[in-house]
């Protein structure tokens, strides 16, 4: 069982930065692959970034070069550093954990956090 709690969201101006954190419980955290997803108002939840247990990383084209995902297995933490934020990045951001070798298939992520709101003003 893994419990995930996101934090770090807030209101920021376009061009600014935020760092989201995801705290995970459970002794087997290091064995899970971790993802960040987001859901904007009126839109479906979409893939943002993913980090394997071995630390390979993957990004949606819309955030590549601006966002960086990382993890600290010693602290059971996953991070999403978001730079050069745009109004279209406004969404609720979710952290998720999977034991499967997937990126985009949300149904195969076994554990989800409650989400944290990110609002980017123009």
Would you write up a description of this structure?
With 122 residues, the chain is mostly beta strands. The protein contains no helices and eleven strands. It has strands at 4-7, 10-13, 18-24, 33-39, 46-51, 57-59, 67-72, 77-82, 91-98, 111-112, 116-121. Strands 2, 4, 5, 6, 9, 10 and 11 form a seven-stranded mixed sheet that branches. The chain has a four-stranded antiparallel sheet with strand order 1-3-8-7, with no helix packed on it. A hairpin with a 5-residue loop joins strand 5 (46-51) and strand 6 (57-59). The protein is globular.
Brief overview, please?
The chain has 122 residues and is an all-beta fold. 0% of the residues lie in helices and 48% in strands.
Largest sheet: 7 strands, mixed
Integer-rounded radius of gyration? 13 Å
β-sheet strand percentage? over 45%
The SSE order reads EEEEEEEEEEE
Mean pLDDT: 96
Q: What best-fitting shape do the alpha-carbon axes yield?
A: globular
How many strand segments?
Answer: 11
Key descriptive features of the protein:
single chain, 122 residues, 4-stranded antiparallel β-sheet, 7-stranded mixed β-sheet, 11 strands, mainly beta
């Amino acid at each position: 069982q893994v419990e995930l709690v996101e934090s770090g969201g807030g209101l920021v101006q376009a061009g600014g930065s935020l760092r989201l954190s995801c705290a995970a419980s459970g002794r087997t955290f290091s064995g899970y692959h971790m993802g960040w997803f987001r859901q904007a108002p009126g839109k479906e939840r979409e893939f943002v970034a993913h980090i394997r247990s071995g630390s390979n990383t993957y990004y949606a084209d819309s955030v590549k070069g601006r966002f960086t995902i990382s993890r600290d297995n010693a602290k059971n933490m996953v991070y999403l550093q978001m730079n050069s934020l745009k109004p279209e990045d406004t969404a609720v951001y979710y952290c998720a954990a999977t034991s499967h070798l997937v990126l985009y298939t949300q149904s195969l992520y076994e554990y989800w956090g409650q989400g944290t709101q990110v609002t980017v003003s123009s």
